[in-house]
Every structure is written in C-alpha cells, then in structure tokens.
C-alpha cells in the first residue's frame, strides 16, 4: 500500500457515560484523554468528539453540552459518511468507541455468538438507546477501505452474553428487542441475511471487508470475555483498553507506531494485570498488522518482536515456547517498547541479552546475562538472535576450489545453522539443504538435490556472497521448521486434547478432507505422498470448518497460516487469532489463487494451510516470513519440504493441509 506524504488525518472519538440504564463513568474520560494525544501530533488532525454525560441535574434524562456533539446514532453516522465522502485516498481515519456493546442473536438455539452492535443514543424529549449494528458499521468501513482510506477502529466495549448482570464496571447491555424495533434497518445497508450465518459471530472479521490491507480493528476483549472499567484510588474510572492504549502512547511520545507492536505490548500489559483486575480480558486484533496506528511507519523490516512479561517475583517470561520453535539456549536481545518498535537492534541503549533457560508449551523462561542499570518491565520486546531448533535441518556446502579457509568465521556467524563441508550432488537424506558452488555462483538444493535457488556471486566480494547465501538458507530452514511443527504429545491416543476439536476442509463439490497424512495420521506434518494432497484449481474456494468440543464455558483459539510457493509464511486469518466457544462450529472460506510467477512453470505447485489450535491465547506472528526474493525454476518434481519434527506439549495442536494445484 502506498501512502501520500501529505495525507489527511481524521479522528472520531465516541464516549458514552449517560445511558438510560446501566450508566458508565469512564467512557467520556477515555476519549478526552485520547484527544489530548491527538492534539499533540505534528500533523493537523480533524478531530470530532461525541460525548454523552448527564446534565447538572443527576435526575435529568437529557445530555450535557451541545446537541451536535451528543453521541447519537444520527450524529455518528453523519460524521462517518462525511469522512467517507470528503477524505482523499491515502488519508488516515481513527475511530474510537468507549461505551456499551451488545450481541444480537438471530437464533439463540444455534449457540452462535451473534452479531455485535454498538449502543449509541437517540435524544428527543429523553435519551433512549439506538443500535449501530456490526454489519452496518462494517459496510461503512468497507466503503472507506474501497476508497483507499487507512482505517483504525478501536472498540472499548464487549459483546459477551455471559456477562454478570448489574455490574457497573462492565461495558455490556443485554439486547433490547423493543429498542431495536423502534428503528427500522436502513434500506441502503445490507441485511444480516446477506452475510453467511457462520460469519455472524463477529462482524469485524476480515470476511466483511474487501481489502484487509487497509484497516485495523482492535477490540477490548474476545467474544466470550467481558470488558471492564478500571477504578483508580481517586474513584475515577477508565476502560482498560483505552487506559493501556493511552499509556502506550505516553511511552511512544505519540500515536504513530506499527499496529502489531502496539497490540503485542497491550496483550502483555493485560496479562500482567489480569489477576489484580480479577478479569481475564485480552484484546483482539483484526486486519493489517503492518499499518501504523494513525500515520506512516517504516515497513522495511519484516521482523516481529515477541513481548515479555515480568512476574511479581522478578522472573522474566517470553510469550513464546515450544509451539513457536523456541529452544533452551536460544538467545534474544531485549529492548524497551519505545526502542524496540524501530524493528532494529540498534537503539540509543544497547540491547539487553537474555538466554532461554526453560521452555514449556507456549512460554519460556529467560535468564539475563548482565547487570542492568534499568529494570526490565512487562511489554519489553524480545528479538531472536538464534533459532537453535533449525539446527535439526543441517546444511552441506560443497568443498570447492573457490572456498577459502577464512570463510569459516563467516559460517560461524550463523550460529543457528548446522553447516558442514563435503560432497554435494548425491542425496543421502542426511541433509536438508545442499549448496553447490560453480566458480562464484551458488545453487541451493533441497534434500533430493533438486534446485531451489540459483544465486550469482561476486568474485570481488565472496564474503558478501556467502553471507547472502547463508541468510537465504536461514529463511528456508525457518520455513521448514514451521512446516514441521507438531505436538508429538498428541500421538498418545489417550491424550484429552485430541478429542477437543475436529478440523477438516471441504471442496466446492462437497468432498471432505482431514489434515496430515492418510498413512501416518492426521498429526503428521512431513507427508509428501501424492494421494494425501488436496487437488484444487486456480480460483477454487475451500471451506475450513473447526468444531470445538471443549466445555461450553471454555474456548479454543485458532490461528491460520499459508506456507506458500515462494517460501513465504502468511497469516490468512488477517487477525492475531479467532475464538471458538465450546460446542460450536467455526467456518471460513479460503480462496485458492496460484501465484503469478508459478503459473508458467512446469513444477508442481503445492501450498500448505497450517492450522494452530490452542487453549491459551498466544501469537504466532513471529513465525511469519516474506517471499523469498530469488528462486529456481526447478523441474517437474514435487516440492517436498522436509521431514517431521516438533516439540512436546499438551495444550496446542498444529495441523497441515497440503494443497496441490492442478496443471
């Protein structure tokens, strides 16, 4: 996505305390505090703030202030339509809502999560509520994105039907059919029936928007959690998401930072304080993680730092573990959040070095190797310096006359790679990659000695050429590592988590396919039998269905990635994760498209759809990889990318679906 240097900035802030029933106390303060940060931006920002506070008489049913800035349905819709019509392509739009949410169930008997709605107001002789339905809001956002606007939507409310009633801190109202019926749906918007029923469980999902590259949505909690206000010692209140977001801006000195870094930092803060707040509440993220929150950011780097949490006993926990390929002995560079967002290890202060001392399923323990002048805190970012797990994918360099003994130091720079020198050209399946050298040219081959990449070298800079080859090898090894990730503990047929889910793909004619290997089981990740691949044609659609078999009060978290033809790992959910309540089914359509550079090749093209399922919230964004810049045309052989390997754990699963495109 290209950005204009003279882009406009449009902010709409909505905070409602004065609900006729179940009033709140922290929502107006949320948006007032955020407005202060927007006013400090160097760019001129078009700010419109709608607030709902009671008039001086506490018994009054009218709102305080100018009616033009009341948070009524008409005022808010007029503002959003005005931005859509007047803003220019490339402008930035920030919408923040603090107030009550609700859930509209089309058929409660089906245990769908229902369509979300924001609870706005309407004021005539008294204040009443009026719903801005999720699919109406999504339709407006869709128009903004289609126009080329870059949209950030923050919803500090909740949509959970499991909320304890009469809790004045909870930002949820039970759905009122009578209040909804008083305002017929606008004919210019699509109806709920125009959207697949399976997707109504969260109207903000990427299925609703045409171009997920153009928006980001941040919600205060998952669809089965509750969003509460924080009560301070002076009696003041704020929404937890708005409060921690404001503190994040304070650390940054502004609002411009990459969305994924802000999200990671927020999640770490919420996890750190959930015991103190007595509420398990975790933000949800949808859309393009690489966008800036409200402005331009540098997208040159593809790295995704991992947040850390400092426990009350002073120990440091990394929010990644065996399921992410972390190994005991891995080294990380730690930086404060405001330094780490630069996507580089070069900061004003040297990074703190840490080593992994213990690894469990989704987290790891870290040991600090130096005396610190400042304490490490929750929300710091960890960037991996080593990935020792990829040493299980050894590399053999050809023993060539152009090889120089002083290259040994260069080879040792890539500590994560297991490299040896020897004969190349005869596959023995001991090595995952071979590097053949012809004069100053390099060819990276797979374990069968089939070419993957051909790289022209430079006689004037052989060291630089070797460093480039090693960087590509590390990329390829990381790809295979992710492909091979599996939970070997689930091979135990008595393991309880084996029966917690059912996952399958369905093609356009109704054929159903399970994950893994037909011969070695659904957990096997290294299968390359032709009969185990799902045959598709370019532009086909597959339906992924996941059934959650956990208890009704529990949830599963799902993460979906595509491991593609150009050795890229892409998040195709366009969200950090999604939530599947116990006893429900979750479905998503996957549009299969053959990459442009693969269409003219004879080589068989395979992708892998990898599904991670966890019982505890985590993020797999650190596993993502960009496309490999240079590749070989190859031959007619299948692209078999590795054997099975994986980590032991108990509360996660990683499942592979091999997708083969018909020629």
TrEMBL record:
<protein>
    <recommendedName>
        <fullName>Peptidase C14 caspase domain-containing protein</fullName>
    </recommendedName>
</protein>
<dbReference type="GO" id="GO:0006508">
    <property type="term" value="P:proteolysis"/>
</dbReference>
<dbReference type="InterPro" id="IPR011600">
    <property type="entry name" value="Pept_C14_caspase"/>
</dbReference>
<comment type="similarity">
    <text>Belongs to the peptidase C14B family.</text>
</comment>
<dbReference type="GO" id="GO:0004197">
    <property type="term" value="F:cysteine-type endopeptidase activity"/>
</dbReference>
<dbReference type="Pfam" id="PF00656">
    <property type="entry name" value="Peptidase_C14"/>
</dbReference>
<dbReference type="GO" id="GO:0005737">
    <property type="term" value="C:cytoplasm"/>
</dbReference>
<feature type="domain" description="Peptidase C14 caspase">
    <location>
        <begin position="10"/>
        <end position="287"/>
    </location>
</feature>
<dbReference type="InterPro" id="IPR050452">
    <property type="entry name" value="Metacaspase"/>
</dbReference>
């Amino acid at each position: 996505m290209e950005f204009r240097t003279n882009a406009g900035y449009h902010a709409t802030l909505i905070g409602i305390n004065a609900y006729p029933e179940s009033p709140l106390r922290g929502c107006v303060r949320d948006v007032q505090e955020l407005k202060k940060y927007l006013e400090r931006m160097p760019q001129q920002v078009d700010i419109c703030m709608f607030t709902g506070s009671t008039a001086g008489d506490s018994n009054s049913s009218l709102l305080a202030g100018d009616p033009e800035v009341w948070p009524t349905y008409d005022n808010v819709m007029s503002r959003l339509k005005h931005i859509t019509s007047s803003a220019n392509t490339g402008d930035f739009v920030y919408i923040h809502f603090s107030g009550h949410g609700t859930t509209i169930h089309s058929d409660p008997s089906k245990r769908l999560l229902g369509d979300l709605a924001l609870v706005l107001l309407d004021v005539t002789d008294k204040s009443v509520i009026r719903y801005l339905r999720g699919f109406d809001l999504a339709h407006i956002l869709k128009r903004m994105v289609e126009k080329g606007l870059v949209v950030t939507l923050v919803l500090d409310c909740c949509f959970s039907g499991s909320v304890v009633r009469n809790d004045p801190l909870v930002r949820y109202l039970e759905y009122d059919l009578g209040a909804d019926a008083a305002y017929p749906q606008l004919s210019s918007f699509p109806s709920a029936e125009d959207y697949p029923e399976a997707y109504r469980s969260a109207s903000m999902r990427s299925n609703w928007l045409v171009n997920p590259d153009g928006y980001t949505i941040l919600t205060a909690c998952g669809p089965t959690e509750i969003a509460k206000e924080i009560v301070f010692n002076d009696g003041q209140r704020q929404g937890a998401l708005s409060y921690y977001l404001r503190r994040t801006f304070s650390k940054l000195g502004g609002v411009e930072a990459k969305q994924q870094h802000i999200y990671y930092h927020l999640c770490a803060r919420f996890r750190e304080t959930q015991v103190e707040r007595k509420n398990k509440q975790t933000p949800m993220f949808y859309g393009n993680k690489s966008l800036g929150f409200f402005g331009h950011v540098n997208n040159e780097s593809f790295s995704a730092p991992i947040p850390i949490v400092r426990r009350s006993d002073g120990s440091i926990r990394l929010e990644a573990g065996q399921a992410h390929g972390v190994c005991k002995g891995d080294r990380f560079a730690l930086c404060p959040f405001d330094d780490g967002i630069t996507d580089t290890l070069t900061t004003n202060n040297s990074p703190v070095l840490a080593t992994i001392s213990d690894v469990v399923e989704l987290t790891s323990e870290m040991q600090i190797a130096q005396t610190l002048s400042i304490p490490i805190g929750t929300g710091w970012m960890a960037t991996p310096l080593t990935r020792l797990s990829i040493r299980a994918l050894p590399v053999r360099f050809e023993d060539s006359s152009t090889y120089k003994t002083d290259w040994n130091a260069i080879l040792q720079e890539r500590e994560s790679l297991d490299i040896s020198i020897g004969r190349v050209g005869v596959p023995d399946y001991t090595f995952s990659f071979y590097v053949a050298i012809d004069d100053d040219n390099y060819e990276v081959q797979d374990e069968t000695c089939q070419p993957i990449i051909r790289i022209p070298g430079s006689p004037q800079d052989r060291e630089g050429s070797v460093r480039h080859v090693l960087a590509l090898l590390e990329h390829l090894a990381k790809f295979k590592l992710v492909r091979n990730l599996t939970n070997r503990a689930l091979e135990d047929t008595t393991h309880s988590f084996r029966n917690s889910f059912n996952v399958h793909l369905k093609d356009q004619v109704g054929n159903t396919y399970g994950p893994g290997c037909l011969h070695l089981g659904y957990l096997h990740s290294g299968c390359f039998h032709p009969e185990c691949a799902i045959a598709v044609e370019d532009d086909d659609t597959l339906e992924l269905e996941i059934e959650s078999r956990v208890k009704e009060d529990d949830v599963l978290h799902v993460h979906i990635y595509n491991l593609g033809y150009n050795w890229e790992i892409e998040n195709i959910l366009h969200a950090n994760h999604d939530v599947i309540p116990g006893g429900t089914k979750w479905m998503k359509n996957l549009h299969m498209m053959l990459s442009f550079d693969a269409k003219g090749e004879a080589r068989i093209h395979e992708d892998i759809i990898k599904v991670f399922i966890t019982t505890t919230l985590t993020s797999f964004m650190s596993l993502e990889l960009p496309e490999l810049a240079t590749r070989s045309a190859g031959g007619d052989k299948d692209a078999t990318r590795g054997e099975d390997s994986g980590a032991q754990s108990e509360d996660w699963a990683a499942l592979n679906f091999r997708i083969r495109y018909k020629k």
